[in-house]
Amino acid sequence: MSQAENPDRLSADHEVTLEDVHALMGASTPHFALQLRVRIRALIKGLAADHPARVAGEREIARLNEIAYDGEVRGTAPEEGLPPLASLNASDSTLFAQDAGH
Fold first, then answer.
1. Fewest Cβ atoms closer than 10 Å to its Cβ: which of 18, 21, 43, 101?
2. What is the per-residue pLDDT for 89?
3. What's the distance, CA 57 to chain centroid?
4. How far is the CA of 67 from the CAs of 26, 70, 87, in angstroms?
5. What distance, in Å, lies between the first and last C-alpha atoms of the chain?
6. What is the pLDDT of residue 44?
7. Cα–Cα distance for residue pair 92/85, rounded to 1 Å
8. Which runs of E-coded beta strand occur in the chain?
9. Model's pTM, two decimal places?
10. Cβ atoms of 34 and 66 closer than 8 Å
11. For residues 35 and 99, what is the distance between their CA atoms, to the nearest angstrom?
């Protein structure tokens, strides 16, 4: 997954919809959370604060931040004697420096 966007969504005359936000939310896993966060933020940045797509996008950005930093628990616990893999540390600002302008 990259931060490249669907060209149709980038056209000046495209009106952002809830479906646009939902389309990006579909692939939201801890592995892709940070890339999706950037794409959703760019998609909704020009919308009014009360626009339904912006409200849904901001809610999804908060969820993506949570799963990016804390991971997502699925399935069974790790095998006995094996430690779980560490998640990103939310205080490590160097991981997100490239994202600061978005």
1. 101
2. 56
3. 9
4. 14, 5, 9
5. 18
6. 93
7. 17
8. none
9. 0.63
10. no
11. 9
